[in-house]
Each structure stands twice: as structure tokens, then as C-alpha cells.
Design a protein that fits this description.
The complex is a heterodimer. By secondary structure, chain A is mainly α. Chain A is built from 15 helices and four strands. Chain A is globular and about 55 Å long. In chain B, the strands form six sheets. Chain B has a six-stranded mixed sheet with strand order 6-7-8-3-9-10, with helices on both faces. Chain B has a six-stranded mixed sheet with strand order 17-20-21-14-22-23, sandwiched between helices. The chains are: A mainly alpha, B alpha/beta.
Chain lengths: 326, 511
């Protein structure tokens, strides 16, 4: 591996480390264990969503419903446990089944009715939000019981927050699914060229349905973590998270045109966005500026990752894309 | 140079010594080509004779290397765009129509030249629709100016393309195989329109492989062969048989184009009985022996690609039976792959390769069953298969990690063939095996296909390239308008025989 290829492959990691280093230099408080733990805590919900949401853009689609799915998951799990009195473990399982079924529905509409995922999941985002408002009466419901449930989001093990373990485990699982399984191969083939994939024996419809299903599964999981973490079930809790997810994915090198994506990249993307957010907080920048900076980061990442041309003065080796062509 | 005022001249276009080569391969050599005003001029030649290149050079889409082209008294620049050509008075209608869905007939006709309302620069739709309708009425076309394009048939869309050219005051309209996708009644209508264009002073260049059309329509015929002008036939010299003789000419003496077909015996691997897909093909029946290379010939639109797509299970069919090793078989892509079918589709870029991902994965995608266990893909086995493919087909560069879109056309095709060859294959269907690849890669692919057949794999080869079919296959079935019209199974076969059968000149047959 030449230095150039090495730099290109781990480009994002270097960028994340560089941003971290700059923040540490300006604000020594950045590098404290408690601050870094806070950053991880804040990114884990987005990062968990990313591990599944990554499959829809790889097939050439998109899932805008992850925020609403997470919201409905938080409300359903609370409703099951604290209104209907279902024990915790069955409640979690039922919630996961319901959330995943929503994804399957999205996938069926995308694959069988040939509607673009953008439209299908935007519609799902809207009606799920309405449903969440309906079940919760639009109220912010506090969750105080059971204690075991609250441990999922707020507990620590060996000093590290439990959601961070969930995030790491599901990231590794998703990475293996994408990189080392038949399904992973098929998802990438469908995104690269669905006609070729079909003529090679891949079923593009089934692959797309699976992608949306997985996306909703991880969104449901993220919703459960979010509910436990914030000790709330609230319809507007995860509103707009889909944009953070897309930001993390794109920053992490997933092409919205389909055919490529990296799960670890998405995790780094989520952490980078978390770093920037955290840095802005440390700098006491008013919160109105945060979306401005996040928006600019998305633009920059898009230019870097989807074939945009960098001006010459910006072409640092670390920013260069990997070129497979020799 | 040409400063003469040719307004009165009977010559509309004069090409002189036009030469063009692509990366060292000469595709047009010192070609002279001239068109009179208000004539219907057919341009004929085999695939690769240089017809399309000549058209592209005339319209300026492809720059010529040398030679002069004078159109209507003006020297034509070496390079310009299709719309610039239209401004000069040259309209081209390609097989792939370039109309925009979602816009109306009138909007398409006046695209980029819309009449504007004074002042704001808004489009004057009333005038645009009226102008378009006036144009339609002038030629009595069965169209309405306000119809959306997507509601029209292919034949009607061609008429819109013609109107688009006429609205730019085209003096020359070039049509590239306009009838390949038309029904016979639509073809008759198109012929009337072409004659009408001629009557109104427009010159029409007509490219076709269908000799009876050329015969029925043309005032003069220019024959190209191997990038050179063979001859120009005047009206009274035109006959289908003569044109075919001139198109192929010298090749009759070459060994490779005259073969003795020998029927391969043994149990059939694949049997197709009375396969019919309404509107595409009818009553297709044949048996494919082990180790046999069967050629499917026919013009574009004859149904040959549709037949193999149905057998591979891509498109459904209406009637008929398929047998694999004597047992009834219901085609489907995944079942086909599992039972030893492989298919190299005609459009490599759109259907054959995964351009943005590495060679390993391109080869792996058809072999997921053999390189995975419990859904877990072994990257070691995937890499081994890729190296096997590279060695079998001599793919260059030997870099398994290269994205296939970065390979040359020939090597891309080798990857598409390779992803099947590394399997335990029984029947390989290959559609236009060598389209768009260079001579060296062609020969290598022929050798590979013949080696496969010797090893017992049966091959169905669809091709427009007649020398290829005659050289490569053991047997040729000719399709015309969706039906089998001729089979060359035994005895001598030449390109001329196949071409005659394809274009409908059977003359009783002399086999």
C-alpha cells in the first residue's frame, strides 16, 4: 500500500483526528474523558440509525422516515410497558417487530409499485408522525419505569455508556453484513446497476425491500435507545434526525447515487458531526449557527465524495480520493 | 474554398476524400459521397462498413481527419454539434429518438427555438402550437401539436423528429434504419412521407439493411465496404441481389466466410418448441446439441434478442415449451443460472457490467452460490475466481481490484463473459459478442467460445456481424419479423446467403 493510497483510504479518520486535535488545542476541556463520553453519547442515536439506513442509498434510494420511526418506537415501547403493562423484554421485541414491519411496508411500495424511496419514505415520515401524535396525544411523556429500561440509554458499564456498546456492536454487525455476506454483495450490485444485477441472478426487488426493512429496524432500535436516554416518549423527539443520518452517511463516503458505502465511514461521519457540534458548544456559539455549520459540512463532504472538483489550492494529499485506476 | 454559388447547382452535398480513423484504425478511407437536391439516396453496407461514421462526419458530431465537405455551397467545419448541423439545414434521425418525454409535440419540435412573447421572454405557446399544427397539416401527418410525446407510438415519434428537422428548414434529412422498429403499415406511411419530402425539395439519406426497402424507395444507392466507397448505383442499376453482392463482394473468396456446416449429433441439451411472444416472435423451435454453437441471425428488430431473453427468463412469453436435458423447464433467471445457463447481454454498459465496482465483485456476483457458505462470502474464493477469469480470458490489466468501468471495451466484455465461464456452465447465450471491441480482442473471444464448445458447452450466439456468425457457428437460424425463415445446418454457407434470408430475398434458395 503506497502512502498515497493509505492516506486516501483513511482520509476521513485523519480528518476526524485533525478536527479533534484542533479542538483539543483550542479547548483543553475537549480532550477530557467526560467531554468525549458526552460526544459519543450524543452521536450514538444517529450512529445506530446510520448502520441500517446506509443500505437504502446504496441501492440508489433513500430513507427519510428514520426519525419518525424512532419517534413512534419510543412512544410504542412506553405505551406497551407503562400503559398496557407488558413486561420489558416482550415490549422491546414487539416494538422492534412493529418498527421493522413499517420498513418492510416502505420497501414493498418502493419495489413493487416503483415509487422512489424519497417519496415513499417522505409519506411514511408524515403519517408516522401523525400516528405518533395520535397515540401520545401530542404530549411529552416522561418514562420513569422500569429501571432496567432506563439502563439501556443511561447506564454505564466499565465507565462507558451502554448505548456506545450498542452502537459499536451493531456497527460491526452491519459492516460484516455489507462487506462479507451474499446480501451485501447484492445490495451493492443493485445500486451499481440493477439491470446487470438482475441478469446476474440477483432479485433487485427483494434486495430493495430488505434494505428498507433493515433501515427501519435500526431506526426502531435507535428510537428505543433515545427513549431510554432522554427518559421521554415524544412525537417530535427525533424530528429531523434523517438529515443528520444523511449527513453522516455522505460525510462517511456513501454515494447517494448508489453502489458504494462504508459503515465505519458513516460512524466516523457521525462522530465528525458530533465533534463539530461539540466544538461549537465549547465555543459558546449560539445554537442557530449549528445548522449553518452542519449544512456547510454536508456541502463540503458532497464535493469531496461525489466527484466534485476541488480547487488546486485545496488539493491536499489527505483530501484526495482513492483512485483505483493506476 | 468552395466559393461558387451553388444555389442553382443540382448538387446539395459533396464529400471529397473524407478520411477518419479511431485510435489508429481507419474506418473511412478517401470516401467520396455526393447528394443531389430532392433525391432519395440509400447508404448501404455491412456492419462496420463506415455508414454511421460517414453520417457523423457529415453532421460534424465526429471530426474528420481530412477531406472536404461542401453543403449547399458552404464548406462544413470539421466539428460542430447536432443543433448547429440543423441550423445549416441537416437533420438527422437516429434509431434512438432524442425526443423529451413530458413535453408536447410542439414543444419538442421547437425545443431551444421557441417563439417568444415580446418583452419578458416568455414562450408564446399559442403561436408555437399554431406553427406546429400548420407544419403537421402541411405534410398531413397523423399528429396533434398538443399531444404529449409519451402518448405517441414509435412511428409517430419519428414523424415528430422529421418535423423538428423540417421546422429548421432542413434541406437534407438523414434517417438511420428508420424502419427497424416499425410495423409494415407504419413503414408504408413512412415511405409515403419520404416521397412527399422529396417532392417538396428535400433530400433524404436512407440507411437500411432491408434491401427490398432500398429497392422500392431509392433514386440512387451508395455502397460502402470496409470504410471505402465501392460504387454508386443509379436508379436503373438497383437490384437487391446486386447490392448484396457489392456490399460483401471480395469476401466471397475468403475461406472464413464460406463454411461447411456439419450438424452436431447427440442428445439435445436445450430444446425450444413453438415459443411465441405476441408482437415479438412466433413459433420458434430448435434443439441445441451439446457442444454446438448455434447462430441466430436477423436484422435489428427481427426478434433474435427477444428470443434469447425469453429463454434466459428475463421476459415472459405467451406460448411454447422449453426443455432442458429432456425435462420440461420453466425459464427464470435464477433457475437458469442454477441449472447452468449464462447470458452475455447485448448492451455491455447498461446490462453487462457493474462499472463502479471492482472486477472481483463483477465476477463474484454470478457466483455467490459457489463462493459463499450460509450466506457468508469467502473473499479468498472470490479472489481465486477472479484470477481464474483473468487467466482464462487474458483480461488486462491483471488487477482484480480495478473498477470495471475503467477497463477497455474488449476487457469489459471479457469480464462479462468471464463471470459465467468460471461457473459450471452448460448453455452460454451471447448477444452481440464482439460489438464495439477491437479486432485482437475479437479473435481472442472467438477462440474462447470455440474452446468452450469443444469442452462440451452449448452456445447460442446472436449477432449482426455476418462474418462473425459464419465463422463462429455450427448452424445458423435466420429470423425475420419474429419468425424463423431459414436454417443453415448443412452444406456451404456464405454471408450472402444469410443476408439474403435476413432481408427477405429468398429466391427459392439454392442450398
Amino acid at each position: 500500500m503506497t502512502t498515497k493510497v493509505f492516506l486516501a483510504r483513511f482520509r476521513l479518520l485523519f480528518i476526524v483526528l485533525a478536527v479533534g486535535a484542533v479542538l483539543a488545542l483550542i479547548y483543553p476541556r475537549f480532550l477530557t474523558v467526560s467531554n468525549l463520553t458526552n460526544v459519543l453519547w450524543s452521536v450514538c442515536v444517529i450512529a445506530i440509525m446510520c448502520t441500517g439506513a446506509i443500505y437504502t442509498p446504496i441501492t440508489g434510494g433513500i430513507d427519510l422516515s428514520v426519525g419518525s420511526v424512532a419517534a413512534i418506537a419510543s412512544i410504542v415501547v412506553n405505551h406497551l410497558m407503562n400503559v398496557m403493562g407488558v413486561p420489558m423484554v416482550p415490549s422491546l421485541l414487539i416494538t422492534l417487530v412493529i418498527g421493522t414491519a413499517i420498513g418492510l411496508l416502505n420497501g414493498v411500495v418502493v419495489a413493487k409499485f416503483r415509487v422512489h424511496g424519497f417519496i415513499v419514505t417522505m409519506a411514511a415520515k408524515t403519517y408516522l408522525f401523525g400516528l405518533a401524535m395520535l397515540i401520545s396525544n401530542g404530549a411529552m411523556i416522561g418514562i420513569y419505569e422500569p429501571k432496567a429500561f432506563l439502563f439501556i440509554g443511561t447506564g454505564r458499564w466499565l465507565g462507558i455508556p451502554v448505548p456506545v456498546y450498542i452502537m459499536l456492536v451493531i456497527t460491526v454487525l452491519s459492516h460484516l453484513l455489507l462487506k462479507n455476506t451474499v446480501f451485501g454483495r447484492q445490495v451493492i450490485a443493485v445500486g451499481a446497476n440493477d439491470v446487470t444485477a438482475k441478469l446476474s441472478g440477483v432479485d433487485p426487488d427483494r434486495t430493495r425491500m430488505a434494505a428498507y426493512t433493515i433501515s427501519a429496524f435500526t431506526a426502531t432500535l435507535a428510537g428505543i435507545v433515545l427513549a431510554s436516554l432522554t427518559q421521554q416518549a415524544y412525537a417530535v423527539a427525533a424530528q429531523g434526525y434523517e438529515l443528520n443520518v444523511i449527513t453522516a452517511l455522505v460525510v462517511g463516503g456513501t454515494s447517494l447515487l448508489g453502489g458504494s458505502g462504508s459503515v465505519f465511514g458513516a460512524l466516523l461521519g457521525a462522530i465528525l458531526v458530533g465533534f463539530i457540534d461539540n466544538g461549537l458548544n465549547l465555543m459558546n456559539v449560539p445554537s442557530a449557527y449549528h445548522p449553518i455549520v452542519t449544512g456547510l459540512v454536508i456541502l463540503g463532504a458532497l464535493i469531496l465524495n461525489t466527484g466534485g472538483q476541488m480547487p488546486k489550492w485545496l488539493r491536499l494529499p489527505v483530501l484526495r480520493r482513492a483512485r483505483t485506476q493506476s | 474554398m468552395a466559393t461558387t454559388n451553388t444555389q442553382a447547382s443540382p448538387i446539395l452535398l459533396e464529400c471529397h476524400n473524407v478520411t477518419k480513423s479511431y485510435s489508429g484504425v481507419v474506418v473511412l478511407k478517401d470516401v467520396d459521397f455526393s447528394l443531389k437536391r430532392a433525391e432519395i439516396h440509400a447508404l448501404v453496407g455491412e456492419n462496420g462498413a463506415g455508414k454511421s461514421t460517414l453520417i457523423k462526419v457529415i453532421t460534424g458530431v465526429t471530426p474528420r481527419d481530412s477531406g472536404t465537405i461542401v453543403f449547399d455551397g458552404h464548406d462544413l467545419p470539421i466539428e460542430h454539434t447536432k443543433s448547429a448541423a440543423l441550423d445549416l439545414g441537416i437533420g438527422v434521425i437516429y434509431q434512438e429518438l432524442s425526443l423529451i418525454n413530458g413535453l408536447t409535440v410542439a414543444q419538442n419540435i421547437f425545443l431551444t427555438r421557441e417563439p417568444l412573447l415580446p418583452g419578458l421572454g416568455l414562450i408564446n405557446y399559442k403561436k408555437m402550437n399554431a406553427d406546429a399544427q400548420a407544419l403537421i397539416d402541411k405534410y398531413h401527418f397523423p399528429l396533434k401539436a398538443t399531444s404529449p410525446i409519451e402518448t405517441l407510438s414509435i412511428a409517430q415519434r419519428q414523424l415528430v423528429e422529421i418535423l423538428k428537422a423540417l421546422s429548421g428548414n432542413a434541406k437534407l434529412i438523414i434517417m438511420d434504419e428508420p424502419t427497424s422498429t416499425l410495423t409494415s403499415s407504419e413503414t408504408t406511411l413512412l415511405f409515403d412521407i419520404i416521397r412527399q419530402l422529396k417532392a417538396s425539395g428535400v433530400t433524404v439519406v436512407y440507411i437500411s439493411h432491408r434491401m427490398e426497402e432500398v429497392y422500392a424507395l431509392s433514386d440512387r444507392v451508395t455502397v460502402l465496404r470496409d470504410g471505402k466507397l465501392v460504387t454508386v448505383l443509379e436508379k436503373e442499376q438497383i437490384s437487391p441481389a446486386e447490392i448484396i453482392r457489392l456490399m460483401i463482394g471480395r469476401k466471397l473468396t475468403a475461406d472464413e466466410t464460406k463454411r461447411v456446416m456439419v450438424r452436431k449429433g447427440g442428445e439435445p441439451v436445450l430444446e425450444v418448441k413453438d415459443l411465441t411472444s405476441v408482437g415479438r416472435f412466433y413459433g420458434i423451435s430448435f434443439a441445441l446439441a451439446k457442444g454446438e454453437i448455434l447462430g441466430l441471425a436477423g436484422l435489428v428488430g427481427s426478434g433474435r434478442t427477444e428470443v434469447v431473453r425469453a429463454i434466459f427468463g428475463i421476459d415472459p412469453y405467451d406460448k411454447g415449451d422449453v426443455y432442458l436435458n429432456g425435462k420440461p423447464y420453466q425459464p427464470s433467471v435464477s433457475r437458469g443460472i442454477a441449472s447452468g445457463f449464462g447470458m452475455v447481454p447485448e448492451d455491455r454498459r447498461q446490462q453487462g457490467i457493474l462499472a463502479t465496482i471492482p472486477m472481483t465483485r463483477n465476477i463474484g456476483i454470478t457466483n455467490l452460490d459457489t463462493i459463499s457458505k450460509f450466506s457468508w462470502v469467502s473473499e479468498r474464493k472470490e479472489m481465486a475466481l477472479c484470477h481464474l477469469g483473468i487467466d482464462l480470458l487474458k483480461i488486462k490489466p491483471k488487477n482484480p481490484d480495478i473498477n470495471v468501468g475503467n477497463l477497455s471495451g474488449g476487457n469489459q466484455q471479457k469480464v462479462v463473459v468471464g463471470k459465467w465461464l468460471v461457473r459450471n456452465l452448460k448453455v452460454l447465450i451471447i448477444d452481440e459478442p464482439t460489438a464495439g471491441i477491437d479486432i485482437g480482442a475479437k479473435d481472442e473471444l472467438y477462440e474462447t467460445i470455440q474452446r468452450l464448445a469443444r469442452e462440451g458447452i452449448s452456445v447460442i450466439c446472436v449477432s449482426s456481424d455476418l462474418p462473425e456468425l459464419v465463422r463462429l457457428t455450427d448452424r445458423i437460424i435466420v429470423l425475420r419479423e419474429g419468425r424463423m425463415v431459414k436454417e443453415f445446418a448443412e452444406g456451404h454457407v456464405t454471408e450472402v446467403d444469410v443476408l439474403k434470408a435476413s432481408s427477405g430475398i429468398l429466391e427459392g434458395g439454392n442450398q
